[in-house]
Amino acid sequence: MHHVVLERWSRGSSAIHRRDPRAKIAPLLMFLIVLATAHSSLPALAAALFLLLCAALVWARLPLAGAVIRAGIILPFTLVFAAICWLGGDPARGLSLLLKSYLSALAVLLVVSTTPLPVLLRGLEMTGVPRFLLMVAQFLYRYLFVISEEAQHMRIAAASRGGSRSRLRFRAAAGALAVLFARSYGRAEEIHRAMLARGFTGHFRTLGALRFRGTDAGFAVIASLAPALVRVAVERFV
Amino acid sequence: MTQPLIEVHNLRFRYEDGTAALNGVDFRLEAGETVALLGANGSGKTTFVMHLNGLLKGEGSIRVCGMPMEKPNIQAIRGKVGLVFQDSESQLFMPTVLEDVCFGLLNRGLGPEEAAERARAALDTVGMAAAASRAPYHLSAGEKKRVAIAGILAMEPEILVLDEPTTFLDPPGQRALGDLLARLPQAKILVTHDIAFAQAICGRAVFFQNGTIAGEGPVEDIVIHFGWSFALERSKSGI
Question: Which of A11, A130, B25, B93, by CA, is between 20 and 30 Å from B13?
């Protein structure tokens, strides 16, 4: 599963890994703004930003090919909209959609692959993201495994009872989805009880605070400026 | 006569769908005791233990360490009664083992450093100190159970309640859990179908039937009286 690999990557020890999560969140936001607002010379800018991200991936000692391929997970979603634009006679918009979505995914992947999720969530909390949203993300991440394992068991159970004809398989999958939802609901209730049993009163308390050092500030400034400077350079010279 | 740790009188509970789960349960737990709750599926065992922690509220009276089960006492009672759930997966919801064990301590108002120190001591007690920084889903079933118990032990409860503790555990895991529980000084209530485990750990058994306690006494006597031993049935039928 993707998040297993990402978690392993996030436990690295490169200079980027060691940075405070807030020092990575700020440049990520900057990168996304620079990319989203770009219109002229987009293919050249996209290529330059792609190289910038590749350099960061190499610096973070992450497998370059693996990361580049994994970021492609976004493409099946955006390809549909790109195809609609192309069919509507606006291929430039379709291409822009593909490039922007892919580069955004790669940038997010870089941050997620260099920051363990609990640390990233703590960083987001300290930058003012609503705690409730972060709790949902944390629980989703934690129980994705459990739910996917349950789905896997149900798929095997259906296959072992000869669920091979496509129409029957579709109906079985629809039923399994409903069962999976009910089980997930039951699981959520049990987790809530387990939390109450250990004195949960509605407010999540976490261990330790993060430390934002001078090197983090320096990194944040340079990494935030980099995509903006790349854009200025591309727009001036291309 | 010393005050019992838990005193339950005429406890009744009905689920929202109308199912009567408890029909007048009377129960006492003395300090240092280890009691097995036996009985068929749906006989009310788990519903009963959920009441001991204030997770369900029925009619009748419950006193834990002398405190009546009332809203102002609920948090204090939850500190006294540590409940280990059947499926450890539901109990280990934090991103790392250490954070999970700290969860209850931080809720109790301890500072992060003190909570981490006590959590590490609890993990050491269950032999899981080396797993502190690991993610719970990377652990085996036996390890998850140990961490779940550490999460409860860290809160220093006076009573441990374990719901089906041997579920998902292989025989070595069951043996290790039995050894661990035997070492712990707290009074314990074990909801279980595992007769051998109950015989090894518990001094007394309580048999649930249709939401009431149908009998109690030494584990062996209760097992024989209610025909609750698989081996006994096999020998009777001559297999």
Answer: B93
Could you tell me the domains of chain B? Answer: 6-236 (3.40.50.300)
Q: Check CB contact under 8 Å for A193 and B85.
A: yes
- Which residue among A187, A191, A207 places its CB closest to the CB of B116? A207
- Least confident piece of the model among A48-52, A128-132, A149-153: A149-153
Q: What is the DSSP letter of A205?
A: -
Inter-chain touch A205–B107, beta carbons under 8 Å? yes
Predicted pLDDT of residue A163: 62
- What does pTM read for this prediction? 0.72
| Residue given tokens 């314990």 in the structure block | B188
> Are A4 and A202 contacting, i.e. CB atoms less than 8 angstroms apart?
no
| Environment class of A13 (CB within 10 Å of its CB; exposed 0-12, middle 13-18, buried 19+) | exposed
Condensed to tens digits (0 to 9), the pLDDT of residues B48-60 reads: 999 999 999 999 9
Closest CB to B151 among A190, A191, A198: A198
Ordered by start, the domain boundaries in chain A are: 2-125+211-237, 132-197
- Chain B residues with CB under 8 Å of A200 CB are 103, 107
On whether any CB of chain A is under 8 Å from the CB of B89, the answer is: yes
pLDDT at residue B111 is higher than 60: yes
What is the arithmetic mean of pLDDT over A153-171? 72
pLDDT-based confidence at A3, cuts 50/70/90?
low
Tell me if chain A has a CB within 8 Å of the CB of B30: no
**Do the chains contact at B107 and A145, CB–CB below 8 Å?**
no
- Where is average pLDDT lowest: A107-111, A150-154, B51-55? A150-154
- Chain A residues with CB inside 8 Å of B106's CB? 205-207
Chain A nearest C-alpha distance from B152 (Å): 8
For residue B9, give the nearest of B58, B73, B46, B42 by alpha carbon: B58
- Using beta carbons and an 8 Å cutoff, which residues of A are at the interface with B? 7, 116-118, 121, 138-139, 141-143, 145-146, 187, 190-191, 193-201, 205-208
The two tokens of residue A154 are 């149900």
Q: What residues contact B137, with CB distance under 8 A and at least 6 apart?
A: A142, A145, A146
- Assess B72–A contact: CB distance below 8 Å, yes or no: no
| Cβ neighbours, 10 Å, residue B164 | 18
Q: Supply the ipTM of this predicted assembly.
A: 0.81
The answer on pLDDT for A2 being more than 60 is no
What's the pLDDT score for residue B238? Answer: 46
Q: What is the DSSP string of A197-230?
A: HTT--S----S------HHHHHHHHHHHHHHHHH
Of B107, A175, B226, nearest to B118 (Cα)? B107
